[in-house]
Amino acid sequence: MQEKAVYLQEPTVARPERPAEPSAELRIHPRPKKSDWLCYALLIVALVLFYQLVIDNPRWQWDVVAHYLFNKRVLAGLGNTLILTALASLLGLAFGVVIAGCRMAENPVLRGAAYLYIWIIRATPTLAMLLFLFFLSALVPRIYLPLPFLHVNLFDVDTNNLISRFSAAIIGLALYLGGYSAEIFRGGLAAVDQGQREACKAMGMSDFRMMWHVVMPQAVRIIIPPLANELITMFKNTSLVTVIGYVELLTTVQLIYSANFETIPLLTVACLWYLFLTSLAMIGQNLLERRFGKGVQR
């Protein structure tokens, strides 16, 4: 007799069904909380107060504000502000890149010099730096570079001719930005994992390709928010150059209201231009963050 093989089947265990995942097109709206209603009420109160204190207040003299908003003198001062911001920012960012490179260098002399520069910039108020540069001729009347053993100067310049109001404003603001942007650059580069650099070296990539294709795209995403904040601060710090007599937006407004005594409307004109240009800068910052945040943010 042939024996029949008996196959034992494992008992089937009923598995709990997984809850259906929400569709990507399905939007779930959370139920409003009591704190949300409180925020809405405070927002309404703030809007009412803003309308009463600002929009409906005749003391703001909005007709005077509209008259001077596009005044030729105001636009000329605004142009000086933009030129000063652009040149000081470019020079300051160049300083920041060099100082950040020195701070991350292996040479102790370069690291020490960069640390000393950042320490001085952090400890010196921007206003004092501008005044110091403008009156530099009292300390150094002439700037010259002698050639050794020849008793000839490679160049010899009068400091008063070299340091004007415009150049003192650019150099002072650029030195300020260079010290702070250097730490921003260093922090962004240090945030990239060291293992990625080692992997690039193992693959035979050069230092330039490693920095350009691997390190910088990740560091830029970290650098953009604090660096944009410093550039916006630079734009507003241009108002400090009024102490050395350079005519920019705020100085122009001060000269106008010192003659017609319309102080509040003209200060409002300056604030509106600062608000408008700062808003444009913030829009550009958001676009850059989206551009370099692809693949990281959902």
Describe the structure.
The protein has helices at residues 34-55, 62-69, 72-103, 108-123, 126-134, 159-162, 165-190, 194-202, 207-237, 249-260, 263-292; strands spanning 142-147, 152-158. It has 298 residues and is mostly helical. The N and C termini lie far apart (70 Å). A two-stranded antiparallel sheet has the order 1-2. Helix 3 packs across helix 7 (165-190), helix 4 (108-123) crosses helix 7 and helix 10 packs antiparallel against helix 11. The relative contact order is 0.12. It has eleven helices and two strands, in the order αααααββαααααα.
Between the first and last Cα atoms, what is the distance in angstroms? Answer: 70 Å
| Relevant CATH superfamily | MetI-like
**How do the strands of the widest beta sheet line up side by side?**
1-2
Specify the structural class. Answer: mainly alpha
